[in-house]
Structure formats: structure tokens, C-alpha cells
């Protein structure tokens, strides 16, 4: 049962990545307050689980006021912020 669940989870993850654009256009930023699950998954160190946590956080807590607020999401720390700070926005 557990093995089947893992196979299904892997399949969904691969499928999601196939529908995500490979790279952002030059100068394009990802808005933490409006980004879709797929857009959030283009961030470094962010997979489907953490992308969903970002969406859940903003739905429960309201809009992110600054990009540093992403570290308030469970499991997302300074390393993830640093890896993505140049392409994040909250505007």
C-alpha cells in the first residue's frame, strides 16, 4: 500500500513538473501573493508540498507583506529565501 502511494505521488510530481515552464523570462518575478502551485514549484528548493504550504499560509494568514515572510511557512528557511530572493515579489 505504501509503495503504491509513493508511485502515485512520484507520478503526480513528474506530471506537475512537465506542465511547469522550464524557466522564467528575463526580469519576470513570482508574486508570493498570487502565484499558482505550478509557478511556486519553479522556485529553487520548492516542490509540490512546500508550494501548497505557501498557498495554505497566505489563505490562512493573509497576504505576504515582504518576501522574507516566506520563512514563516513551516519548513521554508533562510536557505530557500536566499536561493530565490531575486525572483520573488509581493507586489
Describe the structure.
The mean pLDDT is about 85. A two-stranded parallel sheet has the order 1-2. It contains four helices and two strands, in the order H-E-H-H-H-E. The radius of gyration is 14 Å and the shape is globular. The chain has helices at about 1-20, 35-40, 50-60, 80-85, and strands at about 30, 90. The chain is mostly helical and about 90 residues long.
Q: Identify the overall geometry.
A: globular
**Count of strand segments:** 2
> Into which percent range does the helicity of residues fall?
40-55%
Helix-strand string:
HEHHHE
Radius of gyration: 14 Å
Largest sheet: 2 strands, parallel
Strand fraction equals: under 5%
Distance between the termini: 44 Å
Mean pLDDT across the residues is 87
Poorly predicted runs of 5 or more residues: none
Query: Spatial order of the strands in the main sheet?
Result: 1-2
How many helices in DSSP terms?
4
Structural class: mainly alpha
Outline of this structure?
With 91 residues, the protein is mostly helical. It has helices at 2-18, 37-40, 48-61, 78-84, and strands at 30-31, 88-89. The termini are far apart.
